[in-house]
Amino acid sequence: MEYDEIIWRLEKYGLSHNEAKVYFSLLKLGSAMAGRIAKEGMMDRTSCYDALQKLVKRGLATYAVAANRKLFKPVRPEQLVKLLKEREENIEEIMPQLRGIFEQQTEKYTVTLYKGYKGLRSVFEDIIASAKGKENLVIDSSGMFSERMPYYMPHFRKSIETNKIRIRHIVRKGKKVHPTRTTNLRYFPKTQKNTIITTNIYADKIALILWTDVPEAVMIESKEAADSYRDYFEMLWDLCKK
């Protein structure tokens, strides 16, 4: 597993980016002072020390003082699982209250904007949750997902298969894609112009993903709009080749 994916997975456990880098550096070094850890993690010393202090508070690192200098050591990685379980238990305790507040809201926002790769992951996680056992329709002539998010894509593909989400995917002929076992592909002709937009139609939602330098996404939640997009998709599906 490559470095970037390990850091991403540590972030999924709730660590900040700097905490993930420092903890991984500590695991590699065994024990070290802040300066050595900062050098290993390729970060400035102030950011490194702040992350170390937070890791100590989380119970993921300890330190000893020798000659007025702190020598930091990592705690066993199994502590991460314990921390995640504690976080889940804390959320479950307040979930009824949170759900009640959500259901009482009088104004419903139907358009949500997302920015950056973390925002896109939120969109893809919503597809997994909302389309479970159903269908996701994809219009994508660029094939940018696998190119721009190679570390997240395997998780997404596995989740699609685990949750039995059927995918019908229209992509430009000749573009490299990584279909799941539940994917049915059809193709635009090679003459079709590339686009930076990927459209996902699922549940009562439409997610428009813009693969700009800093990617963005627009999610529209509307049954009427989703049904209209489905009609448009079906027309394209019938026109495209297998």
SSE order and pairing:
Elements: H1 3-12, H2 17-29, H3 34-40, H4 45-58, E1 61-66, E2 69-74, H5 78-104, E3 111-115, H6 116-130, E4 135-139, H7 144-148, H8 153-162, E5 166-172, E6 183-188, E7 197-202, E8 205-210, E9 216-221, H9 223-239
Parallel strand pairs: 4-5, 5-6
Antiparallel strand pairs: 1-2, 3-9, 4-7, 7-8, 8-9
Q: If you had to describe this structure to a student in words, what would you say it looks like?
A:
Helices cover 49% and strands 22% of the residues. It is an alpha+beta fold and 242 residues long. Strands 3-9-8-7-4-5-6 form a seven-stranded mixed sheet, with helices on both faces. Strands 1-2 form a two-stranded antiparallel ribbon. The longest helix is centred in the middle third of the chain and has 27 residues, at 78-104. It is elongated and about 75 Å long. The mean pLDDT is 87.
Concise description?
The protein is an alpha+beta fold. It has helices at residues 3-12, 17-29, 34-40, 45-58, 78-104, 116-130, 144-148, 153-162, 223-239, and strands at 61-66, 69-74, 111-115, 135-139, 166-172, 183-188, 197-202, 205-210, 216-221.
